[in-house]
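W.,

You were right to be curious about this one. When I first looked at the sequence I had no strong expectations either way, so I just let the prediction run and decided to look at it fresh. Below is the sequence, 418 residues in total, followed by the output.
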Amino acid sequence: MTTRELLQKTKAAWGCIRSAGAEEKNRLLLSMAESLMQHADTILYENAQDLEQARGLISEVMLDRLRLSADRLEGMASGIRDAAALPDHTGRILEKITRPNGLNIYKKQVPLGLVAIIYESRPNVTSDAAALCIKSGNVCMLRPGKEAYRSARAIVEALKQGIERAGFDADIVNIVEDTSRRSATEIMEASGLVDLLIPRGGAGLIRACVEHATVPCIETGTGICHVYVDKDADLEQALSIISNAKTSRPSVCNAEEVCLVHRDIARVFLPMLKNLLVDAREQAGLCPVELRLDEAAREIIPGTKAGARDFDTEFLDYILAVGVVDSLDAAISHVQAHSTHHSDAIVTENEAAAERFLDEIDSAAVYVNASTRFTDGGEFGLGCEMGISTQKLHARGPMGLDALSTYKYIIRGHGQIR
């Protein structure tokens, strides 16, 4: 079946979910979660095939991004259950206006329709996207990268069985049969069928969708995320935050890529940072972080000389660009110049400095004394997420149910004419 035919089937199935009540949708989601776990062995087998084919072609951290396990599958099922537990926003009245002529005007939240997701090597996106689409009354078309296709297809087949068992049309969730670039192009150009396109992946994928899509498209974030260690920082706290932000899962978009350190503390802090991220990790048999240092940092600790693009690169690996700045103003200027407006953090005990950073950094998520790794739908209490938007319209930050909705005006009168 062609991608366009699948899109048409998916859009045709919207009627069975768009007006479903909260209890019906929650029952459906719980059935999907149960079916996902019932098919765990098949999904893990297909994932092992994907991993085998990808080994040697992508980095170890990207293999980890592709890899599924029993625990990760349970986490995916929990994400679906979390979506079921969320309040149902579909159909709520956002605003009511009564005009002098007696017209009652209601602003009502409604589903978008068909949401398409083009994504790369994270199989968990498959179930997250399906769950949030269904909870918000939408249908879902999935286009994974070919390196994750077998895993994603097995997940979709499991979800479809859960959908059918709950008495709904299985076509409310579909996956492309074609993994060539043609299928991505067909989705990008499916005006009248696709109501929202969400790309999740590297800069190249996102740029292609934003530049070439004729359907509405959300620019989700490449994450050049910064942590700035201020002169008034608690240094032990800063080390803990940076270790988490960089090493807990370096292949994700909310991982730290740049560390900025105030010059007043650099000679004390940078050796501590190197000991934690390089020396201690080597001694523990863990992958050390490669520190790419600007000139001021290289005068204090050994490391790789930072190249021209290292402060503008989403490494998605055990690599960290490190720079020394003279002031809070310089740190803010650096972040404004190099950030992708995803997630940026300051570590400081100075409340005035924290407030300035919060006010002046124009990113989707701005932190004081916390890891950037919290920029996540689940961590923000949104259930799972569709992606993290770095644009300003119509959604920003982790995209939950509200980001998958629009609204329409309902006007009730009794014969008024203009």
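Here's what jumped out at me. The longest strand covers residues 104-111. And, maybe more interesting for your project: The CA atoms of residues 292 and 304 lie 5 Å apart.

Coffee later to discuss?

I.
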